[in-house]
Write a structure and sequence with these properties.
single chain; alpha/beta; 14% strand
Length: 506
């Protein structure tokens, strides 16, 4: 099995922004390219737009003039489907309407050669459904490029129920030859990225709806502690609240309204009010020349404790021991018990575990961090019974470590911890159901949405029981199924426990 030969023609149906981007990628990979639209003027405008893109690359010194001239000679615009007869690959990038796409592919199938691959760039529709009615559905698959297609490396290669494995392999090799990073995926709602990413938005919105913290603070914690490039509130304002909510609702409906994918009522209200984000001038945050930048809640300076006792193994937060000692805080370690940090006033600092502060005498929870050494902000969770002294000591301790501190409400699982646990759980479930490999999920989430780690990498780093235990605790406190750990996650933890156990059955 080999990639599609560069001498063979690639056709892109749909001359809009995405179609132009895909055409540019195929063109610079060396293929003759046809850009098609039923409207002759739009087809010609799409072709000209691609040539303009190439000219800008030359002007910026990113493309050789001779290469651009050669590419310009390989692209043509067409408006009649029979002109696609010689194409080895036809990629559709038209309106997200299943009826329109099905009719298009039935017409394309009638004119192309038997060995031609047919691909849809849909981001949300079922590849299996779009293939229904084709005489040869085995050559049909999804090639989901991310916008802007020339810049973003990820392509989801989606196999429908009837897709031939050879067709998927040929498409995968072709995307690699085009300089892309393809990941294999079964036809499931949202594919990889739009399925696995739902908790990144949903958990932030839930914390906000539970009055745990304001949007600016939640965004700051996920960026500065969790290591995410953007917070979910600012990101959905950029994407468009209507667009983001539509994807969430589509995945939720496709999974028969599973509580794991339940949409946000707060986001629904934004959409209903027309506050769609940057494009409307107002979303979670205001935009425009007079709009002020969102400011996260940050605690006032407090005095750091001179000494603390670390009881037990802090697990993912074990690096704090060295950080505290380096910062001049005397640390005494006790192996048994815990895990927690005992403060001088008898209060305790505990890593988020899905429980709530109100359940204990005097506890302050602290959130998960991607790396406690490089994190610039830490969230603390308290309840009305938390003593002022304990909170002050906890705030002062992290400030002594060079961190800004955001104090949020008594939210089980806090912000980063519950988000990461849900990402891990959805990944484990998707992998167990054959949607994709863990490696491909990790690749997709890092390249498609710029996550600092893939969910599988988080899982390995945090320990096989960490996410399961946190979600189990969350499920007890927020019943209804949203946080119920998947069977796949349970099995992964059980297998790890069995591997670690000494001896075994005779």
């Amino acid at each position: 099995m080999t990639a599609i030969e560069r001498a063979r023609t690639v056709a892109v149906v749909g001359a809009g922004t995405m179609g132009q981007g895909i055409a540019q990628v195929a063109l610079l990979a060396g293929h003759p390219v046809l850009i098609h639209d039923v409207d002759e003027e739009r087809a010609r405008a799409g072709r000209d737009a691609v040539r303009d893109r190439l000219a800008r690359l030359v002007a910026k010194g990113k493309l050789d003039r001779a290469e651009a001239d050669a590419a310009n000679g390989r692209i043509e615009s067409v408006h009649e489907l029979p002109a696609l007869a010689g194409a080895a690959l036809v990629i559709e990038a038209v309106v997200e309407d299943p009826a329109v796409k099905r009719e298009l592919f039935r017409s394309v199938e009638a004119v192309v050669a038997p060995d031609a691959l047919l691909a849809t760039n849909t981001s949300s529709l079922s590849v299996t459904e779009l293939a229904a009615g084709l005489e040869h559905p085995g050559r049909f698959l999804g090639l989901h490029f991310f916008n802007p297609a020339p810049l973003l490396p990820l392509v989801e290669v989606v196999s429908g129920f009837a897709t031939d494995p050879g067709a998927a392999e040929r498409a995968h090799l072709t995307m690699t030859a085009w300089g892309k990073t393809p990941v294999r995926c079964a036809d499931t709602p949202g594919f990889i990225v739009n399925r696995i990413a739902r908790p990144f938005y949903a958990e932030a919105f839930a914390v906000h709806e539970e009055q745990g913290a304001d949007p600016a603070t939640i965004d700051a914690v996920l960026r500065e502690s969790g290591g995410f490039r953007m917070g979910p509130f600012e990101l959905t304002d950029l994407i468009g609240q209507d667009v983001n909510e539509a994807v969430t609702r589509s995945v939720w409906e496709s999974f028969f309204r599973s509580p794991k994918f339940q949409p946000s009522l707060a986001q629904r209200r934004l959409v209903q009010s027309g506050r769609l984000g940057r494009k409307s001038g107002q979303g979670w945050f205001p935009y425009g020349p007079d709009a002020k930048a969102p400011v996260p809640q940050t605690a006032a300076p407090e005095e750091a404790p001179a000494a603390v006792t670390v009881v037990g193994d802090l697990g993912p937060a074990a690096g704090l021991v060295e950080l505290m000692a380096t910062a001049g805080i005397q640390v005494t370690e006790v192996e048994s018990g815990g895990p927690y940090i005992q403060l001088p006033g008898e209060g305790q600092l505990v890593l988020a575990d899905g429980k709530t502060a109100i359940e204990f005498a005097d506890v302050v929870y602290f959130d998960l961090a991607l790396d406690y050494r490089s994190a610039t902000r830490i969230a603390l969770s308290v309840c009305e019974d938390t003593s002022e002294r304990t909170l002050a000591e906890a705030v002062g301790l992290f400030q002594q470590l060079g961190k800004k501190v955001s104090v949020i409400g008594d939210v089980p699982g806090m912000i980063v911890a519950r988000t990461v646990a849900m990402l891990i759980d959805l990944t484990a479930d998707a992998v167990a159901r054959g949607t994709a490999t863990t490696e491909d999920v990790d690749t997709a989430m890092k390249l498609g949405v710029n996550y600092p780690l893939g969910p599988g990498e988080w899982h390995e780093r945090l320990g096989r029981d960490w996410a399961y235990d946190l979600l189990h605790n969350l499920d007890e406190r927020v019943p209804g199924g949203r946080y119920a750990p998947s069977l796949a996650l349970y099995r992964l933890g059980y297998r790890a426990d069995a591997d670690d156990a000494e001896g075994g059955a005779e």
